[in-house]
Amino acid sequence: MVWAGVANYRRRKAEQEKLRQMQAVLMPAAPATSADTMAPPEEEKSPLEGKPAPGFALENLQGEKVSLASYKGKAVLVNFMATWCAPCKVETPWLIKLRDQYGPQGFEILGISTDDLDKDDKKRMAEDKADIAKFVSNMHIDYPVLIDGDSISHPYGGIDALPTSFFVDRSGKVVAATVGLHDRDELEANIKKALASGGA
Amino acid sequence: MYIIFASALCGSLQCAVSQKLAWQSDAQSKASEKQFVQFLYPEQVKLVAGKPTVVELHFRVNEGLHINSHTPREKSFIPTQLLVEEPTGVNVANVDFPAGTDYSPAFSPNDKLSVYTGEFVLRAHITAQPGDHLVQAALRYQACDTNSCYPPKKAPVAVSVIAK
User: Fold this and answer.
1) Cβ separation of A116 and B19 shorter than 8 Å?
2) Are B163 and B47 in contact (CB under 8 A)?
């Protein structure tokens, strides 16, 4: 049932995007406000909202398995990103600061890299991992970044665009989801929502 | 066999083959075929056999989107490349890519990205032996809009080459 909802959601998202692009062509030229440029219009609610976040265990850059389940009791932002994603680079410094601010209250971020990994060629895979590690270092990311995000894209509804974020409460339930770059205030509001929900 | 016309050559054929993950169904594969860039024309070209000829390949990026140029300013950005499958009797010696145009995203107005938007043209230097040939290729690109970036895709290209 969840998968049917996810498939319909993806189809509706694609139709919505097409409509948005058509509207963009038809709209008369007007000065863009920051709200116009920062947030997609009327984003549809993810079918995962209100449901348990799909579990996963992915490797971090040190080769250790990290599972979402091990963060139960914390509010977690599952943030799908990639080294080639320009809006992700804008969002990352905000995430670092928000983690500093809300970490003491039990907030954590899991960055999920969707960069391709050449699994058939050990040398190239090591290079792929090194590129991700370099990105993490250059961006001063101090939260865990897990690799091979594509392998968990399906249960999360298919990650069609980046960045995509799922805000998971302390009980492991998705309380909000966003696709694309949203402003910092919206990120913070969703973090607060995750922290306030699902406590014992 | 693919030939990759790119400044950063792939080390193996892996980069020329679409990755299909184990869990992907056919339906999902079809969904992932949605393209943000279309090959426009030509469908057919007539050449003088044995004479090097420039063939202009026209593409269009969907409204509201941009793709990285062949030479993006940041190393981590994915350049637009042409992966060419040379049939017997056809040689594609080189492909010229246009310079990108500067684009400053609304979310990062101080940055200048090197991108293609709207229509753009690649110039392929082709020499063909007498006969009818089908040259197949794929334009590998990575698209973004004002808020989001989309995973890299390959737009199919097919040109019938008639050399006399």
Assistant:
1) yes
2) yes
Can you tell me the ipTM of this complex? 0.77
pTM: 0.79
Residue B32 lies inside a defined structural domain of this protein? no
Q: Domain residues for B149?
A: 2-9+37-163
> Residue A183: closest CA among chain B residues belongs to which residue?
B107
Give the one of A20, A88, A124 whose C-beta lies nearest to B12's C-beta: A124
Domains of chain A with bracketed CATH: 45-196 (3.40.30.10)
CA distances from A191 to A62, A94, A149, A168, A197 (A): 27, 12, 21, 9, 10
A136-162 pLDDT, tens digit per residue, is 999 999 999 999 999 999 999 999 999
B17 inside domain: no
Which CATH number fits the domain that encloses residue B58? 2.60.40.1250
Instruction: Measure B88 CA to nearest chain A CA, in Å.
Output: 29
Q: Has residue B22 been placed in a domain?
A: no
What is the C-alpha radius of gyration for chain A, rounded to an integer number of angstroms? 17
Q: Which residues of B touch A82 (CB under 8 A)?
A: 149, 151
Tell whether B75 is covered by a domain.
yes
Reduced to 3 states, what is the DSSP secondary structure of residue A24? helix
- C-beta atoms of B148 and A150 within 8 A: no
Q: Residue B149 and residue A162: Cβ atoms within 8 Å?
A: yes
